[in-house]
Amino acid sequence: MRVKLLSAAAAALILTCVCGSYSRTGVSSAATNATNDTILVEKAQSALTADLPVAESEDNVQELQWRTYTSGEELRVMKDGLGQDDRIVKEVSLITGTSSGKIKVILYERTDDSIYVHAALVKDDTAYDLGAVAALSDEQVQIQDIFLFRKEVIKIQGAVGAAASMTRYIDIEDGVPKPLLLIDEGHASEYDVDHDGQEEVIASSGTIPSLSVYRLKDGRIERCQLNEALQADAVVMTEEGAVAAYFGQERVKLYWLKAEGLLNFAIYSREEFESDRFVTIPYTSDDVKRVREQADRQRIFDPYVPRQGIATDYSVEARSTTDREGVLQLSYPHFSVYESKTDLRPHDGGKPISGEKRYFPEFTAEWIEPAEGGGEWYVRLGSTYLSIVTAKPFDKEQLLYVIASLIPLEQVKPSDDSADVLPPLQITRDYLFALQAANEFAAAWAHRDPNSGLKWVTDEWKARQEPLELDAYFRGTSSPHHMTFELSGKRRVDERTYLFELRLYDDYAGQPDYVLGFPADYGRGGIIEVVKQGENERGDGIWRVNP
């Protein structure tokens, strides 16, 4: 799940109002055609042409000053509980997977405070005062269990203004609730900013966008204010998870936040960064159709395309590869993206080679360098394996930005304003039998019934699995155990193939919502293929699932 971050578009709009006459309202917005595009660079590199951004070297990482954050005083025990005249607004009981005892949070209005909503945390029979958590309004106060800084914490977030919130993180340490973080600068959210697999807390605020990061380091919480560190007018997180710093009306620098500091991997003029034909990749309806047609030919029914590039005017060429069966190649100026239904990583002794990993909300990117040099990023999104490669002098950090921008082809909005409309899914006898196969397959998974489930999958799929793997696929484990599914029809590819959207949900018994599984806003699966494998004696189609 991708968290909602203050986007570069918002930064551009605000800078337009604050700094003067800007010709655009945000990143990726419609723009006038830029002429004589030039790149503002801090280090000339003759190896790159004039229309390509220059990245600073790995050893030129800007170190950051982190300040230790103190969580404040311990929570006060409310010996007498709530006042008799205090009005309870809401009570929320929490499932605490790693702490003992029952916990609930009570929101209430105090008779002596007409401005704020207050909260109390009740553990067993003891109530703790959490203080003010939101302004009195119709806005809902969010209360949830989350996993942060390698521990289970309770998050309470409420609005205190039109564009600001107050967020409290409470740690249940040794059975006693203690304040972990109190953030009242703008809006706080959890995001793996340095892409190391552990979430930090980011806080975005201000009329001119400001970004602060809170992290756990050597057992203590530290804070860094990125505007101050970069001496930038505005700092935001992009949709790709990079840090974008705006310097007046002239420059935009892109950084990856790493443990050792901020690594700058691209520098653009603001006009270039916001252009709809420079960095942002436009797709016409014909582009979308060509990519889909080539993907269908390779039986890749869940194709992805990058939303962001590196530089220059963009076009895309889609074709099958001549040296690898079932692989789709999307060629852009400066790089190519490869897609397949099977793992694209190089193998050694039958096992895929591993490399350096970077973690994003929806995927893990793995950088693998072959012995002869070069390198590629490898990812898996849904049922599709992808890699990105270039023969030009771009470093892996620039390529990572491109691959972090991948979106499903079906989410592309054509730049020529002509809707790429697929023909409506016709309800026919073939569709009903295909839907039956998908439903019976998913029901067998939910009921953990391999005998029934294996009747509804293709022989080709079964042949690719080990016997024990086939049984385990349907039986699952005791925890998490298979729970339920969601199924919907997508489209008909040809006379023998339907596509369905299938999500399979697991349940971790007795665990809070932040644990992967049901109820969560994502599940295993994605687009599945249901193929016709003949007809029965009545002439009805025999349809089977190819997961």
From TrEMBL:
In the UniProt record, the signal sequence range is 1-30
- Keyword Signal assigned: yes
Q: Which UniProt keywords apply?
A: Signal
Q: Note the superkingdom of the native organism.
A: Bacteria
Record protein name field: Lipoprotein
Q: Organism source for this protein?
A: Paenibacillus konkukensis
Source organism lineage? Bacteria, Bacillati, Bacillota, Bacilli, Bacillales
